[in-house]
Design brief:
339 residues; alpha/beta; Jelly Rolls; 3 domains; 5-stranded parallel sheet; 24 strands; 30% strand; Acetyltransferase (Isoleucine patch superfamily)
């Protein structure tokens, strides 16, 4: 039987009902459960917040919010597979921070909210389009090993462990980064790697192992420019269009194809002269988008909260062309799928 380290009381139903999503490795699966249990069993003040989320997610449980107690609630949560998955998705979009959240600086285009962050002994800065797999830890927190007992535990360092991560970095599942550390643009930290304090990872380097060492160096020419081999390969497997800048990370399962939010202007590479645009709008029922490229401009008017339409794309030939999508409606946010 799995013995939780999160402080769950004896008899907490951690077996059986948790055997969902069989394809997920056990370590990752239990990490998700520990995140939920740790957040609420060790922080009772957040129980009301969680109860409110449950009320919104499941109306039948919501009727009993006033009668909830920790034991009954945990039994209901851990025994309801659908509810647990919904709650986990909600929690996964909020960073888990141990320390001062003001010391965490994440670019709005980065996708690292599955990480655990410790900012007790330094700042963590993360650049554009950096992304992380599951169970990744970024630890800018440390203790003084020269101390002993109570002092070693509670007189932790307050500075000197900054972590700076550049643009386009891939933090693969299960890796651990210990500050102080610098990771250059477009580097790759392999799954399970441990980047030790004092490491400087060059741009484009691949680091793997414990402690992590350089195992390769990526050639920027392979992925730079519209005709680069890696870009052409990605274009082929993504239906002839690539979203390259200005978009949120893709969402699946909402529209019929992967979709991205357009809030201002987004850039894409494509070979398509005609495309289907599927959309869902937030807080508005009408929006206008200007699509521009070397072939001119195309205005696209979207009506209704969601829908699908056909449009031409301003390309000149069947060569790979950069086009831009600019949202003309002030304050609008549109989830777009173009294929």
């Amino acid at each position: 039987m799995y013995a939780p380290s999160c402080g769950a009381a004896p008899g907490c139903p951690l077996e059986g009902d948790l055997q969902y999503q069989e394809s997920i490795p056990e370590r990752v699966k239990m990490g998700k459960i520990k995140k939920i249990l740790g957040a609420f069993l060790h922080a009772p003040e957040r129980f009301d917040e969680l109860a409110g989320r449950i009320a919104k997610t499941d109306s039948s449980l919501g009727k009993r919010v006033d009668e909830l107690n920790i034991d009954w609630f945990m039994e209901q949560l851990l025994g309801n597979r659908e509810l647990l998955e919904k709650l986990n998705r909600q929690l996964s979009i909020t960073p888990t921070v141990w320390g001062d959240p003001a010391r965490l600086e994440i670019d709005e285009t980065a996708d690292v909210f599955t990480c655990f962050f410790n900012t007790n002994s330094g700042r963590i800065r993360i650049g554009q389009y950096t992304f992380a797999g599951s169970d990744v830890s970024l630890l800018a927190g440390s203790h003084d090993p020269k101390l002993t007992g109570y002092l070693r535990r509670d007189a932790e360092l307050s500075e000197g462990c900054d972590i700076t991560i550049g643009n386009g970095v891939w933090l693969a599942s299960g890796c651990i980064v210990l500050g102080p550390c610098e990771i250059g643009d477009n580097a790759v930290i392999a799954a399970g790697a441990v980047v030790v304090p004092g490491t400087v990872v060059p741009a484009g380097a691949v680091y793997a192992g414990i402690p992590a060492k350089e195992t390769g160096r990526l050639d920027p020419a392979d992925g730079a420019g519209a005709e680069a081999p890696a870009v052409l390969s990605a274009l082929e497997r993504n239906g002839g269009i690539l979203f390259t800048a200005g978009w949120t990370s893709k969402s699946t399962g909402i529209l019929s194809h992967p979709a991205r939010f357009l809030k201002g202007e987004g850039v894409a590479l494509t070979r398509l002269s005609q495309a289907t645009v599927e959309y869902r709008m937030k807080d508005t029922e009408k929006a206008e988008i200007l699509i521009s490229g070397p072939g001119g401009e195309q205005r696209l008017v979207l009506s209704g909260m969601e829908g699908k339409t056909e449009t031409g794309l301003p390309v000149l030939t069947d060569e790979v062309t950069e086009i831009r999508f600019r949202l003309l409606t002030p304050g609008a946010e549109v989830l777009l799928s173009v294929y």
